[in-house]
């Protein structure tokens, strides 16, 4: 028999994102496998997700570098901290590691612009 991993109740969509405890993360339901074949299938799915994440992170980083170059060319500040705070706020829904993930993405996007 296959069981599913329960998810947390949805928060109202108009509420500001807050940092949930790791045990309260809102996750999609995934069937818990009964055998090694099921585990292997989930690992294949994880590998595909990881490949897509890498592709998306590379695209995000390239976009961020282009924005930084344009801001520098136009005489703007190298970093817009209010924008970075907006980005970090989105990642808070991922729990305790969400802000760390957001910070890593911001650092990658800054490239040389974020270093003195």
Automatic annotation (TrEMBL):
Keywords: Isomerase. The keyword Glycoprotein does not apply. InterPro entries: Chorismate_II_sf (IPR036263), Chorismate_mutase_highGC-bac (IPR010958), CM_dom_sf (IPR036979), CM_II_prokaryot (IPR002701). Residues 1-20 have a biased composition (Low complexity). One of its GO terms (molecular function) is chorismate mutase activity. Pfam families: CM_2. GO terms for biological process: chorismate metabolic process. It comes from the Bacteria. The keyword Isomerase applies. Residues 1-26 are annotated as: Disordered. It is an enzyme of class 5 (isomerase). Its EC number is 5.4.99.5. Residues 33-116 form the Chorismate mutase domain. This is Chorismate mutase.
